[in-house]
Acetylglutamate kinase (Desulfosoma caldarium), 303 residues
Amino acid sequence: MRDAAALLIEALPYIRQYSGKTVVIKYGGHAMKDEALKDSFAQDVVLMKYIGIHPVVVHGGGPQIGRMLDRVGKKSDFREGMRVTDEETMDVVEMVLAGKVNKEIVALINRHGGRAIGLSGKDGMLIEARKMHLFKYLGDDQPPEIIDIGLVGEVERVNVEILEVLEKSHVVPVIAPVGVGKSGETYNINADLVAGKVAAALDAEKLVLMTDVPGVLNAAGDLISSLTVAEAAELIQDEVLKGGMIPKVQCAMDAVQGGVKKVAILDGRIPHAVLLELFTDSGIGTEIVPSRPSRRFKERKRS
Ligand SMILES: Nc1ncnc2c1ncn2[C@@H]1O[C@H](COP(=O)(O)OP(=O)(O)O)[C@@H](O)[C@H]1O
Ligand SMILES: CC(=O)N[C@@H](CCC(=O)OP(=O)(O)O)C(=O)O
């Protein structure tokens, strides 16, 4: 009993810090595997809202899209963590993200006593997007090769009006990473990138990116508990970060530089990962900070 009281008291300064503030949570497709974990995530979100924090959920659904593409006989193809998206793939992506996955998370939060509402980037023109191009470096003497990855978008603008209205209510917004272009075209956007832009547009107190590894790992596989923007850029350049971890860390860097106070990448396989990160002294996962002039970054062993 005394332990429970001590735990609540440990949480008190953090509850005071976050109460009345916005926390954006990116809920990745890989962290949605297990029913008990999904329940603990929904409980965390509901508890946050009840104690006066404004949680905003941005979800992924990469594995779910992959399974649906398999069922219709289409292969998944990725470049630098981005799904190559032709028109047929875009239809499947929108159906899975804005339909099935979004409504599943909304229902989950509501089942745990919250009031969630599902939005895609098209609702209220929430996420205005433009086509993304990837550039491949071919040497100093040549222009880079432009890689066309189809209907993949990057966020041009987040129209936060609807989110600001919801902040004043009991409703938790749950956002699917589908964007809308100037001529009404639909874009598939990496969910981490959407979460970063939404957090910056809302001037969020914290951005939490949930994934299926303990956090950012160094070349030896150890967890890096704190990472500056410059150190993160080095890890990308040295190819220590691969696949989906590249846009995740890039989004964390952008968010920090865009004014989000705190950004953490953490293990969504840990029950109540969000609460542990927000409300305990030690936190979990990797925090990304703007700079740390004098100290070397600490590393702790992956448990
Ligand atoms: N240096 C690294 N540290 C941690 N994870 C890495 C690293 N490099 C590549 N990864 C991969 O990035 C994955 C997380 O990205 P992604 O699959 O897009 O996650 P999510 O779907 O949870 O957003 C991890 O499962 C891991 O395989
Ligand atoms: C362009 C792009 O790659 N979009 C992603 C959108 C979903 C996503 O980001 O899901 P996770 O967070 O679960 O990986 C995709 O099609 O898989």
